[in-house]
Specification:
Layout: H1 2-17, E1 25-28, E2 34-37, H2 44-68, H3 70-91, H4 103-121, H5 133-162, H6 170-216, H7 221-235, E3 241-246, E4 252-258, E5 268-270, H8 274-281, E6 286-287, H9 288-291, H10 295-298, H11 302-310, E7 313-321, E8 324-332, H12 342-373, H13 383-396, E9 402-409, H14 412-419, H15 421-439, E10 444-449, E11 452-458, H16 462-477, E12 493-500, H17 507-523, E13 528-532, E14 539-541, H18 546-553, H19 555-573, H20 575-594, H21 599-611, H22 621-624, H23 632-639, H24 641-649, H25 659-664, H26 685-700, H27 711-720, H28 728-739
Parallel strand pairs: 12-13
Antiparallel strand pairs: 1-2, 3-4, 3-8, 4-5, 6-7, 7-8, 9-11, 9-12, 10-11, 13-14
Length: 752
Amino acid sequence: MFYLIIIGLVNIINVFSGIFLAAPQAVSSPDGDVIFVYSISWPVSILFVVCGSITLHMLYLLFRYSKTNELAKKQFMPIVLGILIVFVGHLALLIPLFKGFPTDILSGVCFAFFLFYALYQRRLFKLTLLFSRGSCYAIAAGLSLLLFSNFIGLLQSFINMNLSIFKEHSVLIISVFFTIATFLIYQGMKQFIDRVFTKEEIYQNENLKEFSLSVSKSLNVNEILEQLVDVIHKTIAVKKIYICIGNEKNDAYIMAHSTSALDKKSFFIRKDSPIVAWLSENEEILLMKDFKRSVSYKSMWEDEKKQLADLKIECFVSLKDAGDLVGIVLLSDKDKHRNFTLDDLSFLGSVESIGSIAVRNSKLYEKACLEARTDELTGLLNRKYFYETIQNEYEKSKGQSLALIILNIDDFKLYNQLYGNKEGDLALQKISRIIQAIVGSNGYVARYSGKEFAIILPLYDLLGAKNLAENIRLQISEMHKRVVEYSFKTLTLSGGICSIPYAASSVKELIDNADRAIYYVKRNGKNAIMTYSERDHNFVSGNVTKDTLRQKESVYSDYETTIYALTAAIDTKDHYTFDHSNNVAYYAVELAYACGMNQETAESIREAALLHDIGKIGIPEHILNKPGKLTAEEYEIIKGHVENSINIIRHLPSLDYVIPAVIGHHERYDGLGYPRRISKEDIPISARILCIADSFDAMISERSYKKPYSVNRTLEIISEECGLQFDPELAHIFIEAVNNGSIKVNPTIKCI
């Protein structure tokens, strides 16, 4: 607005006064020609200062904009040159050499040429927008007026001389004549413009409308990509079209569709490619000839440049989903090596918008379908889709083999009780990944129930299915051996296998027989893979032997002996720790029963309580029995007894299930405990029970550094620490059980 006001004032003043630059004077030259001569004086410099300021400011704005947009620099360069030519052309008027020569007019013509080139050839705007219906009316009216002003006299004379009978109506005749002439001129102009400028646009719009209707009826990505290729190939005469879609790893865009099935499918564009970066940041169509002038092109790998050159790629079109680049359309050169016009780019922009929306909708549909048929936790097929898949495979495999493996995780409820549901979910995810990796593309994997997995294996017989299941069982048994923090309970699988047509004749029979095989495995010791035999309705064991069963029967007596030996070792070191462990075991077991836990779980907690302080064997006696307050260094040594306990127990595979309770019995509900500083439900419930039992016995017992607290005071402290040190729900149950006599306060109870 400032420049507009300044220019307006300067021109108004100059027009009426000529103070800055007077109008040129027509002077006859010696050879008879008329030339126009300016009378230039110093005030003309004011005009140059004003115009020069505007020019410099424009150049500055263009320069600043082009720093963030390299292609804009190329687009605006002709205009910049035109501005400089106009300025220089007017400046030349001051040079005597050009006196009498219209350098200003010539520079203006040059600027008009550069402006037209930039606007149309460099795609700064759409040329057909100049030719609207209004412009046709204006042109027709102008031509009619020109004809009317030049031929009205001739036409009047013609009527008077040759058509005297119509002399009185000559005005009406002339009016009708020029009305018809104006209409014909308008129609001629419209036909000319439609044929020259808008015929191709109309054709493109028809194809675009057809493409939009087609893709709106489809939710299949491949169909949409095929239609996208067809509409581009039909409308723009390009030789080849390739579409790359982002892969599952999201690290590259892989060739998904092209104009010919014979085209190489190995082409891909890396996610870190400068092309991907440019298309992600911009909403425009990218031409290779423009991209080659940019710094980004120079930073590309040579193999990328060679691939694009071999495919003769000339244009890139992005496919986006909510701003994210999901695909790239690559166009080769056009027939007869013609350039891409502004109409082509406008059409591709419309195709890009419609195609992106269609691809996005199809992906949302596929995502919804995937979520409907997959298990949320593991990503495997869910139970409902498992039944659909096995029925479909049964229909397809008529006369051929179809095997089914059902795998059940042994003692998974105990695993959840020991480590918590969070660790249980992580274990299920790890198991599902192992199974999926081993099965691969050979079959389908589903989460059959909470702790069961089903594997459908088309064309597999019993032996092949059994070998695959054994591989899975062994891999899962080794799953936790790499964990360095502390040992988890080893997870094992009980698996049943059946196949059609060898051991079943229908899908229902196939599933029932595999379930029966699992039942027999569970009844005979677990941790085995068995196949169902239709011939005699017996089971063939994968790895369960009489020795294995005998070992299972005697395992508890082995535990008892080991625990007794370890607690006896504690007694030789510190008699208080021995008695304390017995008392904690009693309180912990009673609290477990009060919480509604079964005998198996309570027994595992009892064994953990007996061993929870076994690591104190490694603590010096002068620290264990120190009468005064421990120093910070001594306290750190005492805290180390937890890790010592784990290091002892982890070498006893039969007792590894007690580790979660042992390692967590000094954790606090508020997360300020040790050694892992976990909180709330992340602490295994067995450890939370031990924490209460351990603290209760420690407070009511006499130690070298303190007097015993009364039971009432101890229960008050436990109540005060609800939600801080102790699980509030368990603490209230424990307090109530002590008060009503369910838990007897008797530090002399022996649990061995």
